[in-house]
Structures are given as structure tokens and as C-alpha cells.
Amino acid sequence: MPRSLPLDVQLSRRQALQLGAGAAMLGFVGACSATNDTESAIGPGAPQVRAYAEAKARRFPLGNVAEYDLRAGPSDVDIGGARNAAWVYDAQLPGPILRANVGDRVRVLFRNRLPAATTVHWHGLAIRNDMDGVPDVTQPPIPAGTEFTYEFIPPDPGTYWYHTHVDLQRGRGLYGALIIDDPQAPANWDAEFVVVLSDWLTSRTPTQVFDALRDGTMESMPEMTSPALGGDAGDVNYPLYLLNGKPPADPTAFTARPGQRILLRIINASDDTAFRVALGGHRLTVTDTDGFPVEPVDTDSVLIGMGERYDATVTLQDGAFPLVAVAEGKGGQAFAVVRTATGCRPDPAVAPAELRGQPLTVADLRATDAARLPAREPDTTLQASLGGNMNTYSWTINDQAYPEHTPLTVHQGQRARLVYTNTTTMYHPMHLHGHTFAVARPDGSGPRKDTVIVLPGQTIAADIEANNPGQWITHCHNDYHLAAGMTTIFSYLS
Hints:
This protein has about 500 residues and is mainly beta. Helix content is about 10%, strand content about 40%. The protein folds into 3 domains: about 15-180, Immunoglobulin-like; about 190-365, Immunoglobulin-like (Sandwich); about 370-494, Immunoglobulin-like (Sandwich). The chain is built from 5 helices and 32 strands.
């Protein structure tokens, strides 16, 4: 069982604001906060959470144990020949690829060797609430110099990832890929390339950038706009954009043979950047998003927001080809080489023709029949109005900047419709913990997602099966917007 930790962890004022004074507001680790005379919030230590975990164990009685030892700590990483101070997992950027099968008992002994408290969030997985890794909502922060064991059963195959959920730490390097395989579904590809995209600061930390955004001392940036994103493309223009921890001047190289069918697993782990991804000389066939299958669709490029994942297959030609991830609206790009033969390496600044048209977005995707939610009218509709003020750098849900919040409440067994309405001039990739949802459409064809881009002026409704009790957060996956308050609680009541 996970090791218990002290509750008297000291947090900075920013941490307290970002993480939400959860024990006081929600009830914590088995305690339930009163919401009225008859109902209370189901905390992470509640019997309903244990019952969910026990039901998963009964569903997968033959799962193996997949054990990992994961260490977070400071490290100097080599980025294009320059040493960069970073916080990373297992002394590498990105962290190691963790892999398990559906139904396995995943056990991760996490050792915190950072100079600060932290946690690990298993992004996209519908696992038990007390293993979700949100400080002061599902667990206490893990103090520096201590350990915590995460144990959970992944119920769905696909491309996921893991990252810290504390105080702007992700942008310092704390992220990695998490792949869940289905042994009952043989691979229909010859090789697999895992692609982790990120934006990278070289001379400042994310905390320093956040402080400058908050106090108005951020230096002026070139205009960052994108029609594909409906307006503003971000708050920060980065010196580097990385693909698997490498800059364009020192690119990652993927190798295969001509004619092989490749699976690309693309993960956007960045703080403030959406990417437009294309493989020069090829068209991609998108097959999955956020771990769930869609009806295959061919495209030249795909737009991927922070926290999203896309799987695509491609049959490789003979040669050396640029895999390009343009920082949408920002002018830079991440870059890798896909090589099936000898020859010159493509120019890292190349702009393949495949980038010129409109990229594929969630609007172009339809869930497969197997991935669709059963047809059902929602039992409850919840509103999440997304707001912001750049002058004060405050980002809100329903006019409240977290930790101020009014929970979005559901009961176990309900079909909930969560309606995200973007009233700002910037896109927001909205993520819901502990669940996947169907993007609501009249014909039921909306893809299953856990993170979806909501464009300025746009409303997107997410249909959710409320079958995973606990306290969950929904938030913008722009890490600066999260730190500035665009978060609220999706709360199960008993």
C-alpha cells in the first residue's frame, strides 16, 4: 500500500494559491467536507474510491505487476551542446518511457530528490482517485527527500503521459511518456516512434516567467497569433522547442526501413505552446486521440494542444525526411529526422509543404463505434465559463480564480454534461482528471478525449460517465493559466 505522509507540509504562498488549500476546502484523505445537511464530498480515502479500485481488480484478475523505480531530481541536461539546469526524472529529458499492459498492477516507487515537494500525475488514465497525484486534492505533496508508492490499474490502452502537478515544475523538465498496451490487440505496424514535444526556457525558470506575467514586467513579445487557434497563440515566446529533449540543431533521429508502417505516438508536454505536426513527403493517418480510437482520417498535419495526444500511422518512403512540429503562431519549431536510407539530413529550418494547409483538429474526428458512449440524455449539466484578465494575469472558471471555486457536483452513475465556454481571446486546452469524455454531438460521433482545445468564443460540451468517484480537477493545461487560477473541482457527492 502507498506510504502515508505527514500533512504538515510547508507550502509557499504561490503553491498554496495554485494547489488550493485542499484539506480545508474539500476534506482530505478520507474526510468529507459538508456541502449541505444531507450530502458530502467523496474524498480520496472514501469507501467508494476503494470500491472502484476493487472493481478494477475483479475486472482484470490476471494482470501482471509492472514495477518501476522513478526518481525526480535536479540535473544538468545537454541541449544542443549547452548545459541546462533542469528538474527531471531519472536524470533524463524527457523522463523514461513507462510501459504496461491494460489490467496490470502498476507500482511506481517514486523518490523525491528535488529541493521542493512534488507529485506525479498519470495524465489521461481513469485510475483510483487517491493515486491521481494532485497535491492537496488527492494526496499531500510529497516532501523533498521522501518517497511515495503509486499503485493503480490502467483500464484503457493508448498513449498517455506522466508529469508533476506542482507549482510550475513541469516546464523545468518533469514529464515523460506512459504507454498502455493491449495484449489482445496485435500491433498492425512495424515500428513505433514516441514523440514528446515541449517548449524550453534557457535562462529563466517558469516561476520567474510567471512572476513577470503577474507583475507586468514581462518584456514585449512579437505578435503571437494563429487562425487555427482563433487568435492569441500563447503568452510566452520560447528560445527553444524540443522534440524528445533535443533542439533542431541536434535532432532526434528515428530509423526504419523503406515501406515499413510506423506508428507515431505524439504527446504535447509543453507549458504554453500548441504544435502543428507534419512529416515531410508523407500523409499521416490519424487513428487515436487521447488513448481512444477514431475513424481513421488522412491528413497532411495535425494541431495538438498542451496535454493532448495523437496517434498516427504512416508508410515510410525511401530517404531522410523532416518531422516538424511548428510552434503554432510563434515562429519556431521542433524538429527530428526520420531516416530510411543514407543521405543528407534535412535542414532543421525546413518548412515542408504538408504544413501549408489547414491542420486536422478535433472537429475532423469521429469516434469509432466501439469508443462511443451509449446514447443517453445527461442527468445534469454543468457550466464552466472560462475567463481571464491579462492586466492582472488572472485566469478563471465561472469568475473564480482557484483556490476560490464553487465545485461542479455530480453523483455516481450520472451522465454529466460539462459545458466549457471560452469568453477570452486565447485558446484553452481543457483537461479533466480521472475520466475520458465524449465531445458532445447530436449524432453521438464525438471523439473520446480527456483534453480538448476550446477556441476563443467557442463552446464545447463534454459528456461524462460519472463512474469514478472522488475529487477531481478540471483545468487549462497551459501551465501559466493553471497557476493563475483556471481550475475548479469536479466533485462527487454522496
